[in-house]
Amino acid sequence: QAVQAENVTVLEGGTAQISCRLQNYDGSIVVIQNPRRQTLFFNGTRALKDDRFQMVLFTPRLVRITLTNVSVTDEGGYFCQLYTAATHHQVATLSVLVPPEMPTVEVKQEAVEGDEVELTCVSPRSKPATSLRWVRNSREIPGAVSQQDNGKTFSVSNTIRIPVERKDNGAALSCEASHQALGGQKKIRHYRLDVYFAPSVRIVPPSGILREGDSLSLTCSVTGNP
């Protein structure tokens, strides 16, 4: 092949290198076009007024441009075209990854002893779609996962419904977001249950034997939330 192109994957906001390899280059015209078929460079000369594109290398074997501050709208096929007696072209596909932000937790209603609480973990924007999971005591809590396509990016939610008792007050849960752009790391949102329960009263008598004339001291202990 007279022209070879290499596919590129880059994080949103990063810099992409788009390379075209030439075989037996004889000084013919080389044109690089964006996915909308607008000419970016004509034989090394800028043709489109977008300063994010720079020609960094133009040799008989390799032509390379860079694109800074990449966005998802830059995705697609970039055309490397060599005009000899016949026209040769190859497409370098640019893919953009959008890592998720820290997920948020939405609570539908207050948690009351004896009822269920509904918690939703939300990741509003990522590409491809983020994987969300709820964890308690190192165990995953199965939830209902919803995914919405926002055009170039995805929003994802994971909703769980769990029964709560007073012993669950203060229990620690976490929502974990996993994504290939995070390099094996996770973004974790921690959440503590706040369970409302009715007060319980306990009266503690004094220890030992009381005799007539002794002072009586009673302790009243009340536990409740709030």
UniProtKB/TrEMBL annotation:
Keywords: Disulfide bond, Immunoglobulin domain, Membrane, Repeat, Signal, Transmembrane, Transmembrane helix
Domain Ig-like: 100-189, 199-226
The organism's place on the tree of life at top rank: Eukaryota
Gene3D superfamilies: Immunoglobulins
Organism, as annotated: Tetraodon nigroviridis (Spotted green pufferfish)
UniProt KW Protease keyword: no
UniProt GO cellular component terms: cell-cell contact zone; membrane
A GO BP annotation: homophilic cell adhesion via plasma membrane adhesion molecules
One Pfam family hit: V-set
Cellular location(s): Membrane
Entry-linked InterPro entries: CD80_C2-set, Ig-like_dom, Ig-like_dom_sf, Ig-like_fold, Ig_sub, Ig_V-set
Topology versus the membrane: Single-pass membrane protein
MF-aspect GO terms: vascular endothelial growth factor receptor 2 binding
Protein name: (spotted green pufferfish) hypothetical protein
